[in-house]
Amino acid sequence: MIFSEIVKKNRSYRRYYEDKIIPNDTLTEFVDNARLTPSTRNLQPLKYYIVDYDKRNTVFPHLKWAAMLADWDGPKEGERPAAYIIVLSDKSLTTGSKWDEGIAAQTILLSATAQNMGGCIIATVLNKEDLMKSLNISDNFSIELVIALGFPKENVILTEINPGDDFKYYRDAEGNHYVPKRKLSDIIIS
Amino acid sequence: MIFSEIVKKNRSYRRYYEDKIIPNDTLTEFVDNARLTPSTRNLQPLKYYIVDYDKRNTVFPHLKWAAMLADWDGPKEGERPAAYIIVLSDKSLTTGSKWDEGIAAQTILLSATAQNMGGCIIATVLNKEDLMKSLNISDNFSIELVIALGFPKENVILTEINPGDDFKYYRDAEGNHYVPKRKLSDIIIS
Fold this sequence. Notes:
The structure is a homodimer. Chain A is of the alpha+beta class.
Protein backbone atom coordinates (compact mmCIF):
# COMPACT_ATOMS: atom_id res chain seq x y z
CA MET A 1 0.00 0.00 0.00
CA ILE A 2 1.45 3.41 -0.84
CA PHE A 3 1.36 5.88 2.02
CA SER A 4 -1.56 8.00 0.80
CA GLU A 5 -3.64 4.83 0.52
CA ILE A 6 -2.88 3.98 4.14
CA VAL A 7 -4.00 7.48 5.17
CA LYS A 8 -7.23 7.17 3.19
CA LYS A 9 -7.97 3.70 4.53
CA ASN A 10 -7.27 4.83 8.09
CA ARG A 11 -10.82 5.70 9.14
CA SER A 12 -12.17 5.87 12.69
CA TYR A 13 -13.69 2.40 12.89
CA ARG A 14 -16.11 1.63 15.71
CA ARG A 15 -17.25 -1.91 14.88
CA TYR A 16 -14.86 -4.83 14.60
CA TYR A 17 -14.61 -8.60 14.24
CA GLU A 18 -14.09 -8.81 17.97
CA ASP A 19 -12.80 -12.37 17.97
CA LYS A 20 -10.12 -11.76 15.37
CA ILE A 21 -7.32 -11.43 17.87
CA ILE A 22 -4.40 -9.03 17.37
CA PRO A 23 -1.26 -10.82 18.58
CA ASN A 24 0.62 -9.21 21.44
CA ASP A 25 3.75 -8.92 19.28
CA THR A 26 1.80 -6.85 16.78
CA LEU A 27 0.49 -4.50 19.48
CA THR A 28 4.04 -4.16 20.80
CA GLU A 29 5.26 -3.32 17.30
CA PHE A 30 2.67 -0.51 17.11
CA VAL A 31 4.06 0.91 20.36
CA ASP A 32 7.59 0.60 19.01
CA ASN A 33 6.53 2.75 16.06
CA ALA A 34 5.09 5.33 18.47
CA ARG A 35 8.38 5.22 20.37
CA LEU A 36 10.24 6.53 17.33
CA THR A 37 8.00 9.51 16.63
CA PRO A 38 8.93 13.17 17.09
CA SER A 39 8.55 14.45 20.65
CA THR A 40 8.63 18.07 21.79
CA ARG A 41 12.21 18.78 22.94
CA ASN A 42 12.66 14.98 22.65
CA LEU A 43 11.33 14.63 26.21
CA GLN A 44 9.24 11.51 25.35
CA PRO A 45 6.76 11.75 28.23
CA LEU A 46 4.35 9.17 26.81
CA LYS A 47 4.08 5.59 28.01
CA TYR A 48 1.77 2.86 26.78
CA TYR A 49 -0.41 0.21 28.37
CA ILE A 50 -1.31 -2.66 26.06
CA VAL A 51 -4.75 -4.16 26.62
CA ASP A 52 -4.90 -7.50 24.85
CA TYR A 53 -7.92 -9.63 23.96
CA ASP A 54 -8.12 -11.22 27.42
CA LYS A 55 -8.28 -7.86 29.17
CA ARG A 56 -10.52 -6.07 26.67
CA ASN A 57 -13.68 -6.24 28.80
CA THR A 58 -12.01 -4.24 31.55
CA VAL A 59 -11.70 -1.24 29.25
CA PHE A 60 -14.86 -1.29 27.17
CA PRO A 61 -17.36 -0.06 29.82
CA HIS A 62 -15.27 3.07 30.39
CA LEU A 63 -15.49 4.38 26.84
CA LYS A 64 -17.84 6.93 25.34
CA TRP A 65 -18.53 6.05 21.71
CA ALA A 66 -19.37 8.33 18.80
CA ALA A 67 -20.90 11.33 20.57
CA MET A 68 -22.62 12.38 17.36
CA LEU A 69 -24.59 9.20 16.84
CA ALA A 70 -27.41 9.93 19.26
CA ASP A 71 -29.13 6.56 18.72
CA TRP A 72 -26.07 4.41 19.22
CA ASP A 73 -24.46 3.43 22.50
CA GLY A 74 -21.41 1.84 20.98
CA PRO A 75 -20.55 -1.51 19.46
CA LYS A 76 -22.50 -4.55 20.60
CA GLU A 77 -20.87 -7.71 21.91
CA GLY A 78 -19.04 -9.49 19.14
CA GLU A 79 -18.30 -6.19 17.37
CA ARG A 80 -16.20 -4.58 20.06
CA PRO A 81 -12.48 -3.85 19.79
CA ALA A 82 -10.17 -6.85 20.09
CA ALA A 83 -7.52 -4.77 21.86
CA TYR A 84 -6.59 -1.31 23.05
CA ILE A 85 -3.47 0.73 23.50
CA ILE A 86 -3.82 3.26 26.32
CA VAL A 87 -1.66 6.35 25.86
CA LEU A 88 -0.42 7.49 29.25
CA SER A 89 1.64 10.46 30.20
CA ASP A 90 4.33 10.00 32.77
CA LYS A 91 3.66 12.76 35.29
CA SER A 92 7.33 12.92 36.24
CA LEU A 93 8.18 13.89 32.65
CA THR A 94 5.29 15.93 31.33
CA THR A 95 5.41 19.62 30.73
CA GLY A 96 2.10 19.85 28.95
CA SER A 97 3.24 19.12 25.41
CA LYS A 98 0.36 19.72 23.05
CA TRP A 99 1.50 17.56 20.16
CA ASP A 100 3.07 14.30 21.28
CA GLU A 101 -0.24 12.55 21.94
CA GLY A 102 -1.72 13.21 18.49
CA ILE A 103 1.55 12.28 16.78
CA ALA A 104 1.75 8.98 18.66
CA ALA A 105 -1.94 8.11 18.27
CA GLN A 106 -1.96 8.70 14.51
CA THR A 107 1.22 6.64 14.14
CA ILE A 108 -0.39 3.73 15.97
CA LEU A 109 -3.53 3.95 13.82
CA LEU A 110 -1.53 4.08 10.60
CA SER A 111 0.54 1.11 11.81
CA ALA A 112 -2.66 -0.88 12.27
CA THR A 113 -4.12 0.23 8.95
CA ALA A 114 -0.95 -0.75 7.08
CA GLN A 115 -1.63 -4.29 8.33
CA ASN A 116 -5.34 -4.28 7.43
CA MET A 117 -6.47 -3.59 10.94
CA GLY A 118 -8.03 -0.36 12.12
CA GLY A 119 -8.90 1.64 15.15
CA CYS A 120 -10.41 4.69 16.71
CA ILE A 121 -8.97 7.34 19.02
CA ILE A 122 -11.19 7.70 22.06
CA ALA A 123 -10.67 10.77 24.19
CA THR A 124 -13.68 10.48 26.46
CA VAL A 125 -12.90 7.97 29.17
CA LEU A 126 -15.49 7.72 31.92
CA ASN A 127 -13.91 7.54 35.35
CA LYS A 128 -10.24 7.32 34.49
CA GLU A 129 -9.33 6.59 38.10
CA ASP A 130 -11.46 3.45 38.14
CA LEU A 131 -9.96 2.25 34.89
CA MET A 132 -6.45 2.84 36.20
CA LYS A 133 -7.24 0.91 39.36
CA SER A 134 -8.71 -2.00 37.40
CA LEU A 135 -5.57 -2.22 35.29
CA ASN A 136 -3.20 -1.59 38.18
CA ILE A 137 -1.76 1.52 36.58
CA SER A 138 0.12 3.62 39.12
CA ASP A 139 -0.95 7.21 39.69
CA ASN A 140 2.43 8.36 38.42
CA PHE A 141 0.62 8.23 35.08
CA SER A 142 -2.44 9.85 33.63
CA ILE A 143 -4.61 8.52 30.83
CA GLU A 144 -4.46 10.78 27.78
CA LEU A 145 -6.16 8.70 25.10
CA VAL A 146 -7.45 5.21 24.50
CA ILE A 147 -6.89 3.72 21.06
CA ALA A 148 -9.38 0.99 20.20
CA LEU A 149 -8.03 -1.60 17.76
CA GLY A 150 -9.34 -4.53 15.78
CA PHE A 151 -10.22 -5.82 12.34
CA PRO A 152 -12.86 -3.37 11.09
CA LYS A 153 -16.38 -4.64 10.39
CA GLU A 154 -17.73 -1.41 9.07
CA ASN A 155 -18.04 0.40 5.78
CA VAL A 156 -16.82 3.98 6.14
CA ILE A 157 -17.54 6.35 3.25
CA LEU A 158 -15.88 9.73 2.84
CA THR A 159 -17.96 12.58 1.46
CA GLU A 160 -17.14 16.25 0.83
CA ILE A 161 -18.74 19.29 2.37
CA ASN A 162 -18.74 23.01 1.69
CA PRO A 163 -17.87 25.62 4.32
CA GLY A 164 -20.77 26.01 6.74
CA ASP A 165 -22.22 22.57 5.94
CA ASP A 166 -22.86 20.09 8.72
CA PHE A 167 -19.62 18.24 9.48
CA LYS A 168 -21.21 15.57 11.68
CA TYR A 169 -20.69 11.95 10.70
CA TYR A 170 -23.83 9.82 10.26
CA ARG A 171 -25.08 6.38 9.27
CA ASP A 172 -27.63 5.20 6.74
CA ALA A 173 -30.28 2.52 7.29
CA GLU A 174 -27.82 -0.17 6.17
CA GLY A 175 -25.32 0.93 8.80
CA ASN A 176 -22.85 2.50 6.39
CA HIS A 177 -20.93 5.20 8.19
CA TYR A 178 -20.46 8.52 6.34
CA VAL A 179 -17.74 11.01 7.22
CA PRO A 180 -17.97 14.47 5.65
CA LYS A 181 -14.58 16.05 5.02
CA ARG A 182 -13.80 19.60 3.95
CA LYS A 183 -12.63 20.02 0.37
CA LEU A 184 -8.95 20.43 -0.35
CA SER A 185 -9.62 23.83 -1.90
CA ASP A 186 -11.30 24.94 1.34
CA ILE A 187 -8.43 24.02 3.63
CA ILE A 188 -5.58 25.54 1.60
CA ILE A 189 -5.22 29.22 2.43
CA SER A 190 -3.36 31.41 -0.02
CA MET B 1 8.92 1.01 2.06
CA ILE B 2 6.92 -0.80 4.72
CA PHE B 3 5.24 1.45 7.23
CA SER B 4 7.58 0.85 10.16
CA GLU B 5 10.51 1.78 7.90
CA ILE B 6 8.83 5.07 7.06
CA VAL B 7 8.38 5.78 10.78
CA LYS B 8 12.01 4.99 11.49
CA LYS B 9 13.27 7.06 8.57
CA ASN B 10 11.06 9.98 9.61
CA ARG B 11 13.56 11.91 11.72
CA SER B 12 13.46 15.62 12.54
CA TYR B 13 15.80 16.87 9.85
CA ARG B 14 17.20 20.37 10.14
CA ARG B 15 19.61 20.57 7.19
CA TYR B 16 18.50 20.07 3.61
CA TYR B 17 19.57 20.30 -0.03
CA GLU B 18 17.86 23.69 -0.20
CA ASP B 19 17.82 23.90 -3.98
CA LYS B 20 16.17 20.53 -4.50
CA ILE B 21 12.71 21.94 -5.01
CA ILE B 22 9.57 20.16 -3.82
CA PRO B 23 6.93 20.62 -6.53
CA ASN B 24 3.77 22.43 -5.51
CA ASP B 25 1.67 19.40 -6.47
CA THR B 26 3.62 17.31 -4.00
CA LEU B 27 3.10 19.82 -1.19
CA THR B 28 -0.61 19.90 -2.04
CA GLU B 29 -0.71 16.11 -1.88
CA PHE B 30 0.76 16.25 1.64
CA VAL B 31 -2.05 18.61 2.67
CA ASP B 32 -4.60 16.30 1.06
CA ASN B 33 -3.29 13.51 3.28
CA ALA B 34 -3.66 15.77 6.33
CA ARG B 35 -7.22 16.55 5.18
CA LEU B 36 -8.18 12.89 5.58
CA THR B 37 -6.88 12.42 9.12
CA PRO B 38 -9.00 11.94 12.24
CA SER B 39 -10.31 15.16 13.77
CA THR B 40 -11.90 15.59 17.19
CA ARG B 41 -15.69 15.44 16.67
CA ASN B 42 -14.80 15.67 12.95
CA LEU B 43 -14.76 19.47 13.27
CA GLN B 44 -11.66 19.85 11.04
CA PRO B 45 -10.55 23.26 12.28
CA LEU B 46 -7.11 23.14 10.64
CA LYS B 47 -6.19 24.96 7.46
CA TYR B 48 -2.85 24.99 5.65
CA TYR B 49 -0.67 27.60 4.03
CA ILE B 50 1.81 26.22 1.53
CA VAL B 51 5.13 28.07 1.36
CA ASP B 52 6.91 27.04 -1.81
CA TYR B 53 10.56 27.52 -2.81
CA ASP B 54 10.03 31.09 -4.02
CA LYS B 55 8.51 32.19 -0.71
CA ARG B 56 10.81 30.24 1.60
CA ASN B 57 12.90 33.22 2.67
CA THR B 58 9.84 34.93 4.11
CA VAL B 59 9.45 32.17 6.67
CA PHE B 60 12.99 31.22 7.62
CA PRO B 61 13.89 34.26 9.79
CA HIS B 62 10.86 33.60 12.01
CA LEU B 63 11.90 30.14 13.12
CA LYS B 64 13.71 29.03 16.24
CA TRP B 65 15.86 26.00 15.46
CA ALA B 66 16.93 23.15 17.72
CA ALA B 67 16.74 24.77 21.13
CA MET B 68 19.05 22.12 22.55
CA LEU B 69 21.97 22.78 20.25
CA ALA B 70 23.40 25.79 22.04
CA ASP B 71 26.12 26.41 19.46
CA TRP B 72 23.92 26.29 16.41
CA ASP B 73 21.65 29.03 15.12
CA GLY B 74 19.97 26.95 12.48
CA PRO B 75 20.79 25.82 8.96
CA LYS B 76 23.06 28.02 6.86
CA GLU B 77 22.15 29.28 3.41
CA GLY B 78 22.04 26.41 0.96
CA GLU B 79 20.99 23.97 3.69
CA ARG B 80 17.69 25.56 4.61
CA PRO B 81 14.25 24.02 3.98
CA ALA B 82 13.04 24.10 0.39
CA ALA B 83 9.43 24.59 1.49
CA TYR B 84 7.12 24.82 4.47
CA ILE B 85 3.57 23.92 5.32
CA ILE B 86 2.11 26.22 7.95
CA VAL B 87 -0.59 24.59 10.06
CA LEU B 88 -3.23 27.18 10.89
CA SER B 89 -6.30 26.93 12.99
CA ASP B 90 -9.45 28.57 11.77
CA LYS B 91 -10.59 30.67 14.72
CA SER B 92 -14.22 30.40 13.64
CA LEU B 93 -14.01 26.60 14.04
CA THR B 94 -11.62 25.92 16.89
CA THR B 95 -12.65 24.67 20.24
CA GLY B 96 -9.17 24.01 21.50
CA SER B 97 -8.71 20.45 20.24
CA LYS B 98 -5.52 19.04 21.67
CA TRP B 99 -4.86 16.36 19.10
CA ASP B 100 -5.64 17.48 15.56
CA GLU B 101 -2.40 19.43 15.12
CA GLY B 102 -0.10 16.55 16.07
CA ILE B 103 -2.09 14.09 13.97
CA ALA B 104 -1.90 16.36 10.91
CA ALA B 105 1.77 17.28 11.38
CA GLN B 106 2.91 13.67 11.72
CA THR B 107 0.86 12.69 8.66
CA ILE B 108 2.56 15.41 6.60
CA LEU B 109 6.02 14.33 7.79
CA LEU B 110 5.34 10.67 7.04
CA SER B 111 4.01 11.67 3.60
CA ALA B 112 7.29 13.44 2.89
CA THR B 113 9.41 10.59 4.25
CA ALA B 114 7.57 8.03 2.12
CA GLN B 115 8.82 10.02 -0.89
CA ASN B 116 12.40 10.32 0.38
CA MET B 117 11.96 13.85 1.61
CA GLY B 118 11.92 14.88 5.24
CA GLY B 119 11.01 17.64 7.61
CA CYS B 120 10.85 19.04 11.06
CA ILE B 121 7.96 20.29 13.16
CA ILE B 122 8.75 23.76 14.45
CA ALA B 123 6.59 25.07 17.26
CA THR B 124 8.54 28.19 18.16
CA VAL B 125 7.70 30.90 15.68
CA LEU B 126 9.09 34.33 16.50
CA ASN B 127 6.56 37.08 15.97
CA LYS B 128 3.68 35.17 14.43
CA GLU B 129 1.84 38.40 13.63
CA ASP B 130 4.68 39.63 11.44
CA LEU B 131 4.87 36.32 9.62
CA MET B 132 1.11 36.35 9.02
CA LYS B 133 1.30 39.88 7.65
CA SER B 134 4.19 39.01 5.35
CA LEU B 135 2.22 36.09 3.93
CA ASN B 136 -1.08 37.96 3.86
CA ILE B 137 -2.77 35.47 6.17
CA SER B 138 -5.96 36.91 7.62
CA ASP B 139 -6.32 37.17 11.39
CA ASN B 140 -9.22 34.73 11.21
CA PHE B 141 -6.43 32.20 11.52
CA SER B 142 -3.71 31.50 14.03
CA ILE B 143 -0.40 29.78 13.40
CA GLU B 144 -0.16 26.49 15.30
CA LEU B 145 2.93 24.89 13.80
CA VAL B 146 5.35 25.31 10.94
CA ILE B 147 6.52 22.18 9.16
CA ALA B 148 9.87 22.61 7.43
CA LEU B 149 10.35 20.36 4.40
CA GLY B 150 13.09 19.41 2.00
CA PHE B 151 15.48 16.70 0.91
CA PRO B 152 17.50 15.92 4.06
CA LYS B 153 21.25 16.58 4.05
CA GLU B 154 21.90 15.21 7.50
CA ASN B 155 22.77 11.94 9.11
CA VAL B 156 20.46 11.26 12.07
CA ILE B 157 21.37 8.39 14.35
CA LEU B 158 18.99 6.89 16.92
CA THR B 159 20.44 5.77 20.23
CA GLU B 160 18.80 4.29 23.32
CA ILE B 161 18.72 5.70 26.83
CA ASN B 162 17.80 4.42 30.26
CA PRO B 163 15.31 6.16 32.55
CA GLY B 164 16.90 9.26 34.06
CA ASP B 165 19.55 9.55 31.31
CA ASP B 166 19.89 12.77 29.36
CA PHE B 167 17.34 12.81 26.54
CA LYS B 168 18.82 15.81 24.72
CA TYR B 169 19.82 15.36 21.10
CA TYR B 170 23.40 16.30 20.19
CA ARG B 171 25.93 16.34 17.36
CA ASP B 172 29.42 14.96 17.02
CA ALA B 173 32.41 16.75 15.47
CA GLU B 174 31.47 15.41 12.02
CA GLY B 175 27.99 16.91 12.31
CA ASN B 176 26.17 13.62 12.79
CA HIS B 177 22.99 14.24 14.74
CA TYR B 178 22.19 11.81 17.59
CA VAL B 179 18.70 11.36 19.00
CA PRO B 180 18.38 9.35 22.23
CA LYS B 181 15.12 7.44 22.49
CA ARG B 182 13.71 5.61 25.47
CA LYS B 183 13.80 1.82 25.25
CA LEU B 184 10.67 -0.08 24.30
CA SER B 185 10.74 -1.89 27.64
CA ASP B 186 10.75 1.46 29.44
CA ILE B 187 7.69 2.86 27.71
CA ILE B 188 5.42 -0.17 28.02
CA ILE B 189 3.67 -0.15 31.37
CA SER B 190 2.19 -3.39 32.62
